[in-house]
Amino acid sequence: MKTTIFNQRKERDELLSRTYLQRRTKYDQELLLHSHMIKLITGPRRVGKSTQALLMLRNKNFAYLNFDSKSLLEKWDENLVMRMLDDVYPNYEYLLLDEVQNLEGWDLWVSELYRRGKNLVITGSNAKMLSSEMATVLTGKYLQVEMLPFSLEEFYEWHQLDQHSPDGRNLPDIWALNDDYLRFGGYPESVASRPLTRTYLDTLFDSILWKDVAKRYNVRNTTALNNLAVYLVSNICNPFSVNELARELGISGVNTVQKFLDYLHEPYLFYYLPRYNNKLKLMKKAPRKAYVVDNGFIQAKAFSLSENLGKLLENQVFIELIRRGYDTDKTIFYYRSRNDKEVDFVLREGTRIQKLIQVCYDISNEKTAKREIGSLVECAEELKCDDLVVITNNDERIVEKNGHTIKLIPFCRF
After folding, report:
1. Which residues pair with 404 in a beta bridge?
2. Residue 349 neighbours by CB under 8 Å, 6+ apart
């Protein structure tokens, strides 16, 4: 065990020696570290959770356990591990537990460490950590830092591009990067090697599917699970119902489909957007829309013969809203009016409708503009909302219609 922990120390030190892009979060890192609460960093695989934890703890005296290690899990002995940590990391102040959900009974162990006064930073790639285990055993004991693939702003930083350059010389580069980001997404390792993006994300998608879903939940019908995942990524932004999915994919039992949908959400792969209704019962029955955590997965896995830039932009806007803290259970929805007009995103704050957002890649065509803005205005009148936005590829202006002011904003400015 000591050899395993010592080898992980060498791995930690090698990782710390590299140069990284400092990711943006809503928390001040020093304030986080001084808090006695558990620092929980969550998000999909390979978005940089471990890197973020290491950067938080750089220049601190901290111990490190990586639970993606077979040797650590196979030889696990809690008391022996704690003694070996004291030997390998004398007088450590912080303990970093990486991908801790791989350890059976991890939540009870972490709770015990917390009671002993250990200052903990933990990472995990499964949303279940924040539902059953975290909510029951560790309620009120942790702060969550949720990480996603690079935002567009972080994408610019990676390429050392100043989008606010006063002389506009960077404009051609900005448009090129915007298009690249929209098509291929912001996974850190794919950003660093664009020619390998499709191959890398194809492999990562399969890894999440098999390791974080099929293996974790002992799924027997892996073919049906894979078919559902490919169907969702090929039909991003489209409404679906569980019954329709069962019929379309030939899966026996709507309960199985619902279970698979939940499994695919837990590793932060897919999100499901409900249709807004004042009556919760009706909202639960209405079709939902599926979104995937990164546009690169659409390029890598979608079964499609044509590229739909409008769907890519809508998916990207949705993920940006999730990054800003909107929650598909409480604060973000889509909406259809009584005349079946649709608005892509309804943002709610408390009981008040805060903002309506329509997404349209190219609104230069008069017929398209009439349709999209008309739908937005009709929904706004039903929902009694005055803050109206259309997010476009590169169109920026103000439109007045039926007494409403609509702001058209390019997605790079949004």
Report:
1. 401
2. 331
